[in-house]
Automatic annotation (TrEMBL):
Top-level taxon of the source organism: Eukaryota
Chain intervals with Low complexity compositional bias: 141-151, 167-182
One term under GO cellular component: nucleolar ribonuclease P complex
Pfam families assigned to the protein according to its UniProt record, in alphabetical order: Rpr2
UniProt name for this protein: RNAse P Rpr2/Rpp21 subunit domain-containing protein
Positions with biased composition (Basic residues): 156-166
GO biological process: tRNA processing
Organism of origin: Mucor lusitanicus CBS 277.49
Annotated spans, Disordered: 136-195
């Protein structure tokens, strides 16, 4: 009998929490004050049942007023950098710890959350030679060593060079004995009209 009562209570608790959470999010765009009320009731119900929400769900709304946090609209987030230096026997390690400061613009409540730790290596290690060496040395070819003003101009020069070569080929074709422009091979006039 007691197990069915406990499961019934658990089902009622979860259904109430689900309703409050969804109602708070549904009413956020239509009536923000009603949304705050539902989210505040959601938080009070959690404490009443002695339950804790996961971090992402707990951080969705303000702990004080229940306002759903939307950064830039009704919520401000700042990242505070703190540096600490630790020294081992051989090297110094600089650690940077970020703290997230969350401010509700409705009630002015601020919350601090732990951020991530970042280890920075000493500059001497970063200035040393790279660990992985290139397999083959890169040999510069003459085409890569020539300095061109820009890629647009180099493409234009290549295009003009191609047209010049086509013109030379047509002139050579016309100068050969037995070739005529009436054969349908195209002549200088056809080439110039294509420009």
């Amino acid at each position: 009998m007691s197990t069915t009562t406990n499961s019934l209570q658990t089902h009622q608790q979860t259904s109430r929490l689900d309703f409050l959470f969804e109602a708070g999010h549904t009413m956020f765009g239509q009536c923000p004050s009603l949304s705050r009320y539902y989210m505040n009731e959601f938080q009070n119900t959690l404490t009443e049942y002695e339950l804790t929400a996961h971090k992402p769900i707990a951080r969705l709304s303000c702990k004080s007023c229940g306002q759903i946090n939307v950064p830039g609209l009704n919520h401000r987030i700042e990242i505070i950098h703190q540096q600490s230096r630790k020294q081992n026997k051989t090297k110094k390690i600089i650690q940077s710890k970020n703290t997230i400061k969350s401010t509700c613009l409705t009630c002015g409540n601020t919350s601090l959350y732990h951020g991530s730790n970042k280890k920075k290596m000493p500059k001497l290690i970063m200035q040393q030679e790279p660990v992985i060496a290139a397999a083959k040395p890169i040999v510069a070819t003459p085409s890569t060593t020539s300095t061109s003003p820009s890629t647009g101009e180099s493409l234009k020069k290549k295009k003009n060079k191609g047209k010049k070569n086509n013109l030379k080929a047509l002139l050579n074709k016309q100068q050969k004995p037995g070739s005529s422009s009436s054969n349908g091979g195209g002549g200088l006039g056809d080439f110039l009209s294509s420009l």
